[in-house]
Structures are given as structure tokens and as C-alpha cells.
Amino acid sequence: MAIDRAGLAEFLRERRSALQPEDVGLPRGQRRRTAGLRREEVAGLCHMSTDYYTRLERERGPHPSVQMIASIAQGLHLDLDERDHLHRLAGHQPPPRGASSEHISPGLLRIFDRLGDTAAEIVTEVGETLRQTPLGIALVGDATRYTGPARSRGYRWFTDPAARALYVAEDHAHMSRMYAAGLRALLAMRGPGSRAAYLADLLLAESEEFRTLWETHEVGIHLNEVKRYHHPEVGRLELNCQTLIDPHQAHRLMVYTAAPGTDNYDKLEMLAVIGAQSLCTTRSGTVGAEPGDR
């Protein structure tokens, strides 16, 4: 398929002008004259340089890759029909829909964008983290940095000892059963050739603990509502975990909270300050870098 530069540029301009800062979790600020978002705001949402995005809107620049178009579709909060249209304009076949899709629905993103001061994350059904709030990163680290099968938290649980260090030891056995049971139920639902099948085959070959649990054929072992952490910065931390499921994309929005006035609430507040300070330090070391270069 050939790229339709004029159509792509027009579609990007139209979608940018239709979005308001509040739609994507950005402050409106004063003296805003632009109808919709500014180009630099969209570029930041899409994790690319303003110059690169501007060239696309002006029908110039290189042929954008599938990954770049996917990032633009997510940054502009496109729904699935709009995402598919954007891929076709860019000369690519649209990615598959359904449980394997990593495109987050606009509705789920709108909720996520309003949780800036809350520990929250969006994960796929096999536990691959797609988005985290700053406090979510301060709580469990940047889980979006992993590649390959290690993107799945269940895979990391059985193959990387460091994955368990953040959780209290008394909960490890239950969490192992939960991950194995959840993967078994998912495999039965999605079948051979699915991500669940791929991860199960890997874990059967790599983890004796997983093989032992797999042979029990357990299902229905659920996540505890209260998650207990042993955090290196604030010590023991107990948080309630609520989950919102997108039925069309099989994505989960997981939100971690503590009751106001409790010791856990105070520790979570402290962690927010620590996380903000850490983020400032990181940004000070990357001054001048384009968003697309990080």
C-alpha cells in the first residue's frame, strides 16, 4: 500500500484540532489561541520530536513506520476505526483487533489521564504493562521498559528473582498459584497460537516451580484485594487494588490506593514526593533530547 501524504496530513490536522487539553490530561493554561492541541503537545503525547510530527502534517518527511503510526494513534486517542484508517493512510495494513491488540481505547485512556496523582497502570491480559502513572512507576518501577517475553509480569515472576523482591515473602506462594492458574484459564480461552500459549510453553521449559503448579490444573486463584509490598524507600506498604476491565481490548486499568489517615496513605504520599524528585533528576540529565530519541 502506498502512503497518502495529503490524506494523512489532513487527518492528523483534523484530529489534533478536535482534541482539547482536558481530553488528554493536559492543563489548558492561559492565552491558548490554538483550536485544539498544539503540535508540540501532540508530539509529546506520541513520544516523538515536534519537528517529525510537523513534517507529517505538512506532507513531508520519511515514510512513518508501523510503530510510529501506532504511537500517533495512541497519542491522538483514536478509536479502533480511526486507528485502522490512520494505518491505511500511512500505507500500512492495520494491526489485528481483539485480545492481542495493544491499542488502548480512548475511554480507558481518558480515565487513566485523570489519575495523575494516583498509582495506576494499564496492562494486557497477559500482564504486559502499557501505561503507568508517575506514582505507579515510583511504586513498582518502570514496567514498560521490558522487551520480549519479559514484558509479561507472570513470566518475570517465574524467571527473574528480582521480580519478587518488592512483595512480602508470605504472599509469594499465593501469587505463584495465581499466575499459573490465570495463564491456564487464558490458554483455554485463547487457544494454541496465542500469547498465553507462547508464555506457557516458555515457562514449562524454564521454570520447575511453574511446571509443578501447572500440573495441578488450578484455575480461579484470584489477586488479593490488598497487595502487600516491601518497598525499598518507604518499607512495608499495603494497598487496595481495584481493577477496571475493557471488554473489547481485554486491557485492565489497575488502581492502587490507601485509606486517608492511615500509615499506608502517608507512605504513598511520601512515595509520590520521592518519585517526583527522581523524575526531575532524570529529566535534568536528558536536557535537549528529542522525545523520539529517548
From TrEMBL:
<dbReference type="Pfam" id="PF13560">
    <property type="entry name" value="HTH_31"/>
</dbReference>
<dbReference type="InterPro" id="IPR001387">
    <property type="entry name" value="Cro/C1-type_HTH"/>
</dbReference>
<feature type="domain" description="HTH cro/C1-type">
    <location>
        <begin position="30"/>
        <end position="83"/>
    </location>
</feature>
<dbReference type="Pfam" id="PF17765">
    <property type="entry name" value="MLTR_LBD"/>
</dbReference>
<dbReference type="InterPro" id="IPR041413">
    <property type="entry name" value="MLTR_LBD"/>
</dbReference>
<dbReference type="GO" id="GO:0003677">
    <property type="term" value="F:DNA binding"/>
</dbReference>
<protein>
    <submittedName>
        <fullName>Helix-turn-helix domain-containing protein</fullName>
    </submittedName>
</protein>
<dbReference type="InterPro" id="IPR010982">
    <property type="entry name" value="Lambda_DNA-bd_dom_sf"/>
</dbReference>
